[in-house]
Hints:
Elements: E1 22-33, H1 40-66, H2 76-86, E2 88-98, E3 105-116, H3 117-124, H4 128-161, H5 165-196, H6 200-213, H7 218-230, H8 234-247, H9 252-264, H10 268-281, H11 286-298, H12 302-315, H13 320-332, H14 336-368, H15 372-385, H16 390-404, H17 407-420, H18 426-437, H19 441-454, H20 459-471, H21 475-488, H22 493-505, H23 509-522, H24 526-538, H25 542-554
Antiparallel strand pairs: 1-3, 2-3
Helix pairs in contact: 1-2, 2-4, 4-5, 5-6, 5-7, 6-7, 7-8, 7-9, 8-9, 9-10, 9-11, 10-11, 11-12, 11-13, 12-13, 13-14, 14-15, 14-16, 15-16, 16-17, 16-18, 17-18, 18-19, 18-20, 19-20, 20-21, 20-22, 21-22, 22-23, 23-24, 24-25
Amino acid sequence: MKKFLVAALIGLLIHLPAAAKVEVYEGTDEYYVLGAVENINVARERAREKALRVAREKAGIYLHTVSKVVNMKLIDDEIISLASGVLRVLDTGYETVQLPDTEGYLVRATVKAEIDTGELETFLLKDEEEMSRIIAGERAARLQEERQAQLIETLKQRYAAATTPEERDAIAAKIVGEDNVFLSNLKLREGNKLRDEGNYKQAAKFFTEAIELNPANILAWNNRGWAYVEQRRYDKALADFDKVVELKPDSELAYFGRGRVYNQQGKYEAAIREYDKGLAINPKYAIAWNNRGTAKSWLNRMTEAIADYDKAIALKPNYARAYENRGKAYIALGDYDRAAADRDRAEHIKWSNEHADKIIEQALALNERGKFKAALKLLDDAAKLYPDNQFVFVNRGTIYNDHLHDYDAAIADYNRTIKINAQFSWPYHNRAVAYGRLKRWEDAVVDYGRAIDLDPNYASAYNGRAWSYCQIGQYEAALVDANKALSLKPNEANYLDTRACAYIGLKRYRDALADLDKAIVLSPEGWLYFRRGELYRLIGDEAKAQADFDKARRLGYDK
């Protein structure tokens, strides 16, 4: 059974094609419209956005195989962020389907979008700090959109359950009131696209329109502030960051924004105060530690600056700029040996990334052709040449884990990856997969938990932990995690099978059967028919069990 989906070979991934080309993707999805309550034009936009998310996910699969990113993790969250930055909509088609015996109808949208690989390469060459900000902003925008969509669905359910015309009218008014929130988020996305392209002046205009539609749109205020920073309009930027703090005092992004402005203006004491506030909220932001260290360096507080650079490096061990800055601070203190060591370390990181990159590319190309031992040999050589490059070890570990089935060797490589940098979630996830294959379920539970702590939206980690809980009989905990995984990715057949396992353990057989039925519709594979056959046998329906076992064998699954 396909219980373990190892994170794709990630890190420094396959090089972009030598000649730029255009990749086209389609996405289709639908939105249920509440009759006369909702505006048809807004409903069409909602359907379009859902379809665009599908296209982004498809584009994300492509980006997994062509992206070349240095010193960054690329789990699903970051892949979708990159897809959002480079995906261009070419065309959108709509279809309206009236639903019988209801006052509602469906609007179905089909979006055609493209990625120009030349633009992708330009996008990936952005400054590390800017890229980090883009990814954080995209994550926040998606969460903001998801919350709004969930609110709309809740309001619709309340509308359907309402018992009086007055109650229905009040709920309908709330639904209509949410339209401006949705449209504001659309303007935010358009502004983000322009910002990612470097058109900060035009981006600021869209952020302004987003604010006019919804003055409580925190991300619009924040992003306009950063657009003003790029235009050196610092007073306007500070005013926007001040507004973010007014709306959400615990938003670290606004404090980091104000710190950046004050650093640019040479107001280093003020910058330090802002970074202090931001780091109190989010102490794991390596770039902020580095930037606070820079402010302290300008004030000749070199010992304190070095402590900040130390923290940045502890969080991000391959942070070349932090090594460079720390080296300069050591020079100012007359510690030339340490300065030289940091300079060499920064240069080695850059050199290692550049050269290890090429070996990993070759190894992944062999891996794609099924030449796993040849790929392994290249990565063995790379491990000797670049012993501090985490991506060498995580990729080698995945070959052991996924193809050569040497799980102990895979675990050793994931251990090495984590020792180099413990702040990435996917080595913990992949090590948990290997533990599961060795039936070390308690160890798997711990590692999936570590992955989730680092990335609270890691759907595959919730699913893996749910399955591990099932294996040790903790079905209630399994159900909680399976529900979380499905809330993040509701159409994953594998996740539905996991939840069915939890339901079976809890003797909720009808719920388990419903999940397996849906899983088979989504992915009619032999192992799922076999799973459903086992359930039918458990509940005493031998005829249906045999039918499913026969279907599983015809599809090539014969346990």
